[in-house]
Amino acid sequence: IEKAINDLLLSKEIFIEKPSKEKIWIFSIIYLLLTYFGIRFDFWYISGFFSVFFILFSLADGGFKIFIPLSLGGILISYFTSNIMLAAFTAVHIIIALMIYLLIINRISKVTIILCITAFLFLVSSIFFITLLKTGYLNITPQGAGDYINNYVMNEFMQKSMDAEILKQSFEQLKQTFPSIIFSFSFIYTVILVQYTISSLAKEKAIIPVFGSLRLITVKKSYATLYLLLSFITYLIQLNIDNDYNMVVLILVNFLTIFKWLFVFNGIFTFVYFMHQNKKNVSILEKILLLAAVFILNFLFEVIGIVDSIFSLRRKYSDYMGGK
Q1: pLDDT tens, 188-234?
Q2: What is the CA radius of gyration of the chain?
Q3: How far apart, in Å, do the first and last CA atoms of the chain sit?
Q4: Cβ distance 54 to 99 under 8 Å?
Q5: Alpha-carbon distance 248 to 171, whole Å?
Q6: Contact (CB, 8 A) for 16 and 157
Q7: Are the C-beta atoms of 73 and 55 separated by less than 8 Å?
Q8: C-alpha triplet 118, 120, 124: angle, nearest 5°
Q9: What's this model's pTM, rounded to 2 decimal places?
Q10: Interhelix angle for 84-105 vs 110-134, to 10°?
Q11: How far is CA 143 from the centre of its chain?
């Protein structure tokens, strides 16, 4: 039995038990119907999300002889039912399904799958916005955007009790960190999509990657040192450069905005680790409250993550408790 399991894991098979032939045709039809009705009734952003599992299943079970015509069918349905934009949206999710399949059969970790797809979505989003700007579909210049924001703030908020200057600063920060915001949304969407798709595959008796115990994942001290050093350098540059839209400043600010989430998650893992010291199981309600706290108090979790990374709080506590 052990040899059979090892042979299965080392093979390119994705299913422990081969699904029935009827199921592949049912799932293929569901994929095409989901694509059509999602676009026809304008819930394509939801149908695109759920469609990844069905076309991935068809690829895993039927191979490329099923996957290629099914993909072309989905793209053509999107194009003739709506426009080229939604055809591209469908194509992106087809590529995501293909990426997940190739990474799973090569036994790549779940974390790596999430990072690869996040990078792909961020790249696609960047190309999409650049194309809109280059083709003139979006006619936005930094000066024009600034004038619009200034006029909007003056017209909408100067007559109210709100502090218009604070709102203006928020808009300015949003403009500066727009790339990192896109990356953050790409990451969140990828985590939810990959978790749903892989969990659905597990129900079909597929070999899937899983997360290790998240509370035991740590960030190296060198990363925290680099983050603090870059933060200090960025602060000094901003003091000496009046233009907040300087290319160096924009690159550093957006890089640090993305980089900080590494320590936010490290702070979450640290917090969960010490929660588990007092109780073995964390309830769903506690997880929901923790998730809400992350978005509201992400700076606090960032600090916890940096402190744990530098001082190895979890490791020292484990050593103090006898290595438990």
Answers
A1: 899 889 989 988 888 888 777 765 666 677 888 899 999 999 999 98
A2: 24
A3: 32
A4: no
A5: 20
A6: no
A7: no
A8: 115
A9: 0.74
A10: 160
A11: 31
Amino acid identity for residue 2 in this structure: E
Q: Which of 161, 157, 179, 186 is nearest to 169 (CA)?
A: 157
Kindly provide the b/e burial profile for residues 285-301, where b requires at least 16 CB atoms within 10 angstroms of the residue's own CB: eeeeeeeeebeeebeeb
